[in-house]
Amino acid sequence: MRAIGTLLAACLTALPLPADTPKPDPKKTPETPAVTARHFAVFDAKGNPSSLDTVAERMAGVSVIFVGEHHDDSVAHHLELVLLKRAAEQATRLARPPGVQPRPVALALEMFERDVQDILDEYLSGLIGEQHFKDASRPWKNYVKDYRPLVEFARENKLTVLASNAPRRYVNRVGRLGAASLKDIPDPSRRGLPPLPYGTASPAYAAKFQDLMKDMHTPTKQATLSEIEKGMVLVAQRDPVGIAVWSSFFLAGKSGERPKDKGKDEEKKPAGTEHNAGRGLEAQSLWDASMAYTIAEHLLRQPRAQVIHLNGGFHSEQRMGIPEQLLRYRPGTSLLVVTILPHKSFPRFDVGEMVDRGDFVIVTDPKFPRSFSATIPEKK
Questions:
Q1: Taking a C-beta distance cutoff of 8 angstroms, is the pair 335, 323 a contact?
Q2: Which of 320, 306, 309, 311 is nearest to 357 (CA)?
Q3: Which strands sit side by side in the sheet containing 335-342, from one edge to the other?
Q4: C-alpha of 286 from chain center
Q5: What's the CATH number for 41-166+291-364?
Q6: What's the rounded Cα separation, in Å, for the pair 192 and 185?
Q7: CA–CA distance, 229 with 339 (Å, rounded to integer)
Q8: Are the C-beta atoms of 283 and 174 separated by less than 8 Å?
Q9: Which strand (E) or helix (H) includes residue 119?
Q10: Cβ within 8 Å of residue 2, ≥6 positions away
Q11: Hey, where are the domains in the chain?
């Protein structure tokens, strides 16, 4: 169990999982090939062929665009930058009354947590250098390759960048102790959280989440280290909920055991809650609510703004998760969901798996090199 605890601790302190793999020698690493139109296919919600031009046209008419990705999908990261550039260009080009400034475009990222917004703002304004920014803002380990181009484009074009995610230490707390435990967090630490109590998951979203958890473990089965690793690799590859929530779900008792080196919070856990798998869903909903509230806050400050939010696909597919939470905070907000996913059916649309997963579904070539490895290195 000490090995299990160590593995989970590593996952809760670094996202995504492949960050723990040894750094490759740049001299020996082949360059990622350029993404071209041959590497993706665009469809509408029902599987009718579409195009990036059509996606951009639909983007122009809404306030929020959710782009759901697999975090290791290089093609998705390329397309996200394309869509961000198109949004910025459209905001400048579209007709507006004389004297009215272009529509402000903001990039919002699941990959940064709300309590580092000040650090992000300092970097964007030129107050601090990039190395200090990276040292202080807890970026994901694949930041430089996958998300830095977007942040740098925003910086060069003076676009707002929003750190939208909940601090992972609080997501972990909810996964272990439940949503009610957040009331013990004092001000001003709560500024990284949405207003409490935050919204619960819709019945459809809850069912989808629980189905995923059932795929990872059966409720009464003892988890071995091998099974934990397999579950984490599955999460890293599909990114349905993220390593931290899955680990929190495990710590909440899904495996039937708790690590021996439990901390004070574990000792305070109420009797009879060891197998309360609902805490995993509460942790997932905290992520969704935090990201939704970040967007709603920004639109309250700048009602004319357009927000492009990047997140793991599970958070926004079928307009569930973050979109549902956003409409609670800001009813009537116009939005668009673009789901990008690598799939074996490429370049075809798999009707059985893809219908309505987004207003647009972009299928990418699964053979295109991943932006990082989702395999766990063998132990020596």
A1: yes
A2: 320
A3: 40-44, 360-364, 335-342, 64-69, 306-312, 105-113, 160-165
A4: 12
A5: 3.40.50.11550
A6: 11
A7: 27
A8: yes
A9: helix 117-124
A10: 259, 260, 261
A11: 2-15+169-283, 41-166+291-364
d(CA 298, CA 121): 14
Query: What value does the CA radius of gyration of the chain take, rounded to a whole number of Å?
Result: 20
Minimum mean pLDDT among 17-31, 57-71, 222-236, 301-315: which range? 222-236
Dist. CA 88–CA 81, nearest whole Å: 11
Query: Sign (positive/negative) of CA torsion 110, 159, 95, 50?
Result: negative
Q: What are 245-278's pLDDT values in tens digits? A: 444 444 333 333 333 444 444 444 443 334 456 8
Q: Which residue has the tokens 């601790």?
A: 9
Cβ-contact 163, 118 below 8 angstroms: no
| Region for residue 365 given its phi and psi (left: phi exceeds 0; alpha: psi -120 to 50; beta: otherwise) | beta
The b-or-e profile of 37-60 (16+ CB within 10 A means b, else e) is: eebbbbbbbebeebebeebbebbe
Which residues are registered as beta bridge partners of 340? 362
Give me the residues paired with residue 43 across strands. 49, 361
Rounded Cα distance between 313 and 238, Å, is 9
Q: Which residue has the tokens 């959280």?
A: 193
HSE at residue 158, side-chain half, CA atoms within 13 A, is 4
Q: How many helices (H) and strands (E) does the chain have?
A: 15, 7
Q: What is the pTM of this model?
A: 0.80
Specify the amino acid at residue 356: D
CA angle 16, 308, 206 (to 5 degrees): 60
- Residue among 287, 225, 286, 285 nearest 250 (CA): 225
Q: Backbone dihedral region of 138: left (phi > 0), alpha (psi from -120 to 50 degrees) or beta?
A: left
* Token couple for 160: 């707002």
Whether the CB-CB separation of 321 and 315 falls below 8 Å is answered with: yes
Query: Tokens 């710590």 correspond to what residue?
Result: 251
pLDDT score, position 23? 52
Q: Give the whole-angstrom CA distance, residue 171 versus residue 214.
A: 20
